[in-house]
Specification:
By secondary structure, the chain is an alpha+beta fold. It has 3 helices and 6 strands, in the order αββββββαα.
């Protein structure tokens, strides 16, 4: 019906960004790492470059935000969440920022984040 918003916009290959935000992120062992906070979209290509994962803290206080290259995320239908091949020691050393202190999302930062996860641009 015209003017009505769909309850859930998802196809076999596409999903609405608001359905991704809040989705849980797990490691390969099934441990929950965090949840997707938002997506970083390349203005020129229109492609999602990163999912920013929130992790740690309590009720939003003391959490860190981790940019995860989109290529590192694999959707698992059973978990209804994303699985990443990252363990706790790797996450402990991963690029991150505090809420409200976002980095400058430029090529230098992108190269550093992608290099950390072994992604070549």
């Amino acid at each position: 019906m015209a003017g009505q918003e769909p309850e859930h916009v998802e196809t076999s290959t596409l999903i609405a960004s608001d359905q991704v935000e809040g989705t849980s992120v797990y490691n390969e062992q099934g441990e929950k790492f965090g949840k997707i906070l938002n997506l970083m979209v390349n203005k020129q290509s229109g492609q999602v470059e990163y999912a920013v994962m929130s992790f740690g803290g309590f009720l939003g206080m003391g959490e860190d935000h981790y940019p995860l290259p989109w290529k590192t995320l694999n959707y698992n239908t059973e978990k209804q969440g994303f699985v990443v091949d990252i363990d706790q020691p790797m996450l402990d050393k991963a690029p991150r920022h505090n809420p409200g202190k976002e980095p400058v999302w430029d090529a230098t930062y992108g190269t550093m984040v992608n290099s950390y996860y072994g992604i070549v641009w």
